[in-house]
Each structure stands twice: as C-alpha cells, then as structure tokens.
C-alpha cells in the first residue's frame, strides 16, 4: 500500500512540473501601457527650413548638424573612389500613438491629457533611422501591430517611388498588410493633426470614412498595403483614395494615380471621375469593393432633378482582338431605386415613366464613364481599372506582346460602354396630381 501511495505522489509531481512548463509562455510579455501603440502613420517631405515648425527648429539648434536635420546631400562610398550615391530624399515621418489610459477612461483627464492620442514626428533619409531616433524623444518603443491607416503626403508621393517608400513597412513583421493607405492633398501630418468629428482617434476616423465606400461612389476602392506591394511587383498602375483637410473635418473623395513603371504619383482623379471609375470596376468580393451610392441627373422635358440610389453594380470588361487590333467592351448593370424626384407631374406607378427614368440614368452613367476614360486614356495615359487583367486572361499571347508598354498602348485602344439600369422600386409615392 505505501508503494502505491508513493507512486501516486511521483505522478502528481511529474504532472505539476509539466504544467509549470506550459504556463510559462508569457515570460516576455510587455504591458500595453509600456508601449507606444501606433494607430496611424504619416509620410511627408519635410518643409523648407524657414517653414518648419518650432519643435524641429529647437531640435536643430540643440543638436547642431545631424543627418535627420540636414539638407539632402550627395554621398560617396566608403572606398573614396569618387563614386557618388544617388541623392537622398528627405522624409518626415509621423506616428499617431494611442494613450491607453485616456482611451479607456482610467486616467485623470487634465490639461493636455484630454486627447486619447499624440503625434510624434522626425526627419531623416531612412525610416529605420527616424524610428530609432524616436527613442531620443519618447521613453516607449513603437508597436505597429495595431496600425489601421497610413497617410502619404502629395509632395513625397510625386517625388519618391512607393516601392522604396514602403519597403521598410513591408519588411516589418508587426505591421499588417491590411493597413489601408490614402494620399493627402497637401500634407499627411495635417490630416493626422486634424481633430476628428465622430471618432476618438484621427486614424480611426479615416478608417470609418473609407468604410462608407458602400454609401458613396466618390470614394475610390480602399487600398491595403499588400495591394500596393502586389502592383509594385508587377509594375501595374493603380489608384489610391485621396484625402484632404476641410475647415472642420477631413474629406475622402477622388483618387491619386500611381504609375506602375515608376511607382510615383502622376496626378489626380476628381470626384465625378472616380464615380465613373467605380461604375466601370463594379463590385468585388471584399467589403471594400461593395460600391454603391447615388446617380444624379435631370428628366426631360421639364429637366427636373431625379436621383437614383444604386444598390448593386456589376461590371464585365470584355476584350476583343480582330485582325491584330485590340478593343474593349464594358457591360455595366445596376439595380436600385428612385430616391428623390423633383417633378410635380410624373407618375412613378407608370411603366413608361420608369423606362424614361432608366434611360436618363443610363445616359448620365455613360457620360460619367466616358469622362473618366478620356482622362485616363488621353491625359494621363494610364490603366488603373483592370483592363490589362482582362486582356491577359483572355488573350495571353497578345498581352505578352503589349505588357512592356501597356499604359501607352492602353491610351490608343477603343472602349465601348454599355449600361443597363434596373429601377427595382420607387418608394410609396406614385401619382403627384
């Protein structure tokens, strides 16, 4: 009997030791209050010296000449052979950090602590250098796992390839490739400094507005960091949503055009042009591709205002090759309802009225899409709508011959747009007389 008891004791000891090994997985944990949790990132070109803010001037005066504050220079290599490196592009990097205690309401809110975030900026010619230099300004290391949005300033988007600009962030194992990117009309730091209207954090306000792509055709398809990486790898051109500061808030509409060959921004699409682009692209599978919104036009002969609420939009890009000549046909189908009608005499219950309204909307949609295609083909000579993908799938041999100079080839290709609008409902209002 004693031997049996001893055996049980040894088994219990062995199990206890095993459990201590299993529960030791948090030996390297870090408390959230000890980290600088970054929620948003801004990338800019630094302002000229006479325009820089007081904090940057104070840093320059206190530190003397440093790499982060110096003007771009030509650097030779270590062997002093006279070979010079390419000119550096100076960077202003901004992190929007969360203040967890304020965000959760556990801190005593006084003075400057009323905000649940703070922005910290630094200059240099290397992202790694700037982030490491943040250690001289903040006692907490940056933590990128919760970054939601990234804002790129207009000036640096035109100056520096996104392939080089985002290389550090794509290498970082903490930063998710689902981070959404926008390009600022102006400076990224101004966007991150703008007090949000509805959210606690500016970076989250940006994310929430982008989610309204299902409510407005003016918002370009939100662009994740991973999507940019894929396009840079294949040297395909693409769009990124545009963001700008208004008097009391921020606005996301329009789009920045990124040339695949250079990775740099070449221009903008306006609100109506993005509307046409979204109709050509149609709705995809992800929540960021579920385009919907409004089409506004007038109804002859009285030319009163009438508005169509888009519920679903599907599109098909069909390439054709005849006698070596490439052309495209775009078929767009919309389902929706009449959301507003300023006519005082029309009867929504009559089929003839609905047919006439559908024709008016189809005409307007063709106008929107044609304006968009003219801007892309004639002015910017760039394909950001996926025509190249349709050609590569249906005619891979033709694509192989054209892919090296595709944007230029795209500018010459005829595109026919066909639109079918279905008015599914018109509310409870019928005869108006």
Automatic annotation (TrEMBL):
Residues 253-427 form the Spore germination GerAC-like C-terminal domain. Its main location: membrane. GO terms for biological process: spore germination. Residues 28-245 form the Spore germination protein N-terminal domain. It is found in: Membrane. Residues 71-84 have a biased composition (Polar residues). The keyword Ribonucleoprotein does not apply. It is a lipid-anchor. It comes from the Bacteria. Keywords: Germination, Lipoprotein, Membrane, Palmitate, Signal. Residues 45-86 are annotated as: Disordered. PROSITE patterns: PROKAR_LIPOPROTEIN. The keyword Lipoprotein applies. One of its GO terms (cellular component) is membrane. Pfam families: Spore_GerAC (PF05504), Spore_GerAC_N (PF25198). Belongs to the GerABKC lipoprotein family. NCBIfam families: spore_ger_x_C. This is Ger(X)C family spore germination protein.
């Amino acid at each position: 009997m004693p031997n049996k008891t001893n055996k049980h004791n040894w088994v219990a000891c062995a199990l206890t030791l095993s459990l201590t090994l299993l529960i030791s997985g948090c030996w390297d944990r870090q408390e959230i209050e000890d980290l600088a949790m970054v929620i948003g990132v801004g990338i800019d070109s630094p302002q000229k010296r006479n325009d820089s803010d007081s904090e940057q001037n104070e840093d320059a005066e206190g530190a003397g000449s440093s790499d982060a504050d110096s003007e771009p220079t030509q650097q030779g290599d270590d062997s002093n052979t006279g070979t010079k490196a390419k000119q550096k592009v100076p960077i202003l990097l901004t992190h929007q950090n969360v203040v967890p205690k304020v965000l959760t309401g556990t801190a005593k809110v006084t003075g400057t602590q009323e905000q649940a975030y703070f922005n910290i900026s630094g200059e240099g010619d290397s992202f790694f250098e700037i982030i490491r230099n943040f250690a001289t300004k903040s006692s907490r290391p940056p933590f990128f796992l919760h970054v939601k949005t990234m804002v790129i300033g207009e000036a640096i988007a035109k100056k520096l390839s996104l392939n080089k600009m985002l290389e550090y962030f794509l290498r970082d194992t903490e930063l998710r490739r689902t981070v959404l990117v926008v390009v600022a009309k102006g400076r990224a730091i101004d966007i991150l400094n703008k007090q949000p209207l509805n959210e606690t954090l500016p970076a989250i306000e940006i994310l929430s507005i982008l989610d309204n792509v299902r409510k407005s055709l003016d918002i370009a398809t939100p662009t994740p960091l991973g999507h940019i990486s894929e396009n840079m790898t294949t040297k395909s051109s693409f769009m990124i949503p545009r963001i700008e500061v208004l008097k009391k808030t921020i606005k996301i509409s329009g789009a920045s055009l990124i040339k695949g060959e250079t990775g740099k921004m070449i221009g903008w699409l306006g609100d109506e042009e993005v509307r046409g682009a979204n109709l050509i692209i149609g709705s995809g599978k992800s929540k960021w591709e579920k385009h919907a919104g409004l089409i506004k036009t007038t109804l002859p002969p009285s030319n009163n205002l009438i508005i169509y609420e888009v519920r679903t939009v599907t599109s098909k890009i069909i390439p054709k090759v005849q006698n070596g000549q490439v052309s495209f046909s775009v078929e767009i189908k919309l389902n929706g309802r009449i959301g507003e009608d300023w006519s005082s005499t029309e009867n929504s219950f009559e089929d003839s009225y609905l047919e006439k309204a559908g024709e008016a909307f189809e005409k307007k949609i063709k106008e929107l899409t044609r304006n968009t295609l003219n801007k892309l083909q004639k002015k910017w000579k760039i394909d950001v709508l996926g025509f190249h993908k349709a050609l590569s799938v249906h005619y891979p041999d033709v694509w192989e011959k054209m892919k090296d100079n595709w944007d230029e080839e795209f500018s010459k290709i005829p595109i026919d747009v066909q639109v079918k609008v279905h008015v599914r409902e018109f509310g409870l209002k019928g005869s108006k007389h």
